[in-house]
Amino acid sequence: MIIVIGASSFIGVYTINALLEQGYKVLATGRKDGFRDYYKKLGVDYVNLNICDKESFDSLPKKGVEGVILLAALLPANSPVNLDVSENAADYFKVNTIGTINVLEYCRMNQVNRVISTTSYADVYGHWSKEKMIDEFVPRSFSYEGDHAAYVISKNAATDIIEYYNQQHGMSNAVFRLPPVYGVGPHGSLYVNGTYVKSGLQLFIEKAINGEEISVFGDKDVSRDVVYVKDVAGAFVQAIQSQNTYGLYNITSGKGVTLEEQAKVIMDIFSPKNANKKINFRPDIPNGSQSYIFSVEKARKDFNYLPKYKNFQDMMEDYFYEMQKGTVASLFQTSDQGMNN
């Protein structure tokens, strides 16, 4: 059995589907009851779990657990706190760091040898560039300012404590460093320093669907290494299956895509056939984006990670398919904002 903690996150939904396709028995946990009926139809038990509450883990099985995938987290995208007037650093540590320790302790006490969690690609922000691939061995270099800072620090601490359990308790835990994960789900809109706004991807898609021109602000050649949610889900399955899985992994597409290419692909896929597919480039308006690209060689070597949706065209074609199907989107239309679990 694999336990997925954070099954009411959009990565959780796709990950459980990928596990079921490989024949795994899955136990899903979360804090949103709206997902219970969805998982029941898939033959998956759904348990309410608060990772901040150690007693909550008493509801989990004590035997027969092969591994735990930890997706529950407090994210800046879900946090309505404006740092100019308030502070929520303690919340990030309560959920992301102490919550991780609670998961690790459950596993240690019940002889579960593997937890796979996630961390932020912003932990190496100082190394971002268009030309140089970032591997798992560069030192951390992150910002101590902004609405992601406390989140990144809490995730760094969680990553370190996961490695502590590896070395102190002989576990084989792993952490996936994730860039922006694209896919149909709840984050068409998100909080940026407490203000709820539409994501750049969502704005591009909506403009295309409405037959309107897409505006690309700033440097159109900014190149970012994003990843598709189904590739992330597949990586979790591959990592669970491999005896070599251990430590930190970049889980990205391993390929940069420029803002111009994103706009053109989205325009071609999502626009009505007769639409005037116009892209308006506005280099005079800063976009706040910076180029980055990651190496996925370690994941390829250890558990044969090869992203199926490496090309942005393939990524968006499947995004369009999932959007039209509507199954995942409907789950998040009725769910509340909050922790990604």
Brief sketch in words of this structure:
The protein has helices at 10-21, 36-41, 89-109, 149-169, 200-209, 229-241, 259-270, 297-303, 312-325, 327-333, and strands at residues 2-5, 26-30, 45-48, 67-70, 115-120, 174-178, 181-182, 189-192, 195-198, 214-217, 223-224, 227-228, 247-250, 257-258, 279-282. With 341 residues, the protein is α/β, with parallel strands linked by helices.
Structural commentary:
- This protein has helices spanning 10-21, 36-41, 89-109, 149-169, 200-209, 229-241, 259-270, 297-303, 312-325, 327-333; strands at 2-5, 26-30, 45-48, 67-70, 115-120, 174-178, 181-182, 189-192, 195-198, 214-217, 223-224, 227-228, 247-250, 257-258, 279-282.
- It is α/β, with parallel strands linked by helices and 341 residues long.
- It has one domain: Rossmann fold, CATH 3.40.50.
- The radius of gyration is 20 Å and the shape is globular.
- The strands form five sheets. Strands 3-2-1-4-5-6-13 form a seven-stranded parallel β-sheet, with helices on both faces. Strands 7-12 form a two-stranded parallel ribbon. It has a two-stranded antiparallel sheet with strand order 8-9.
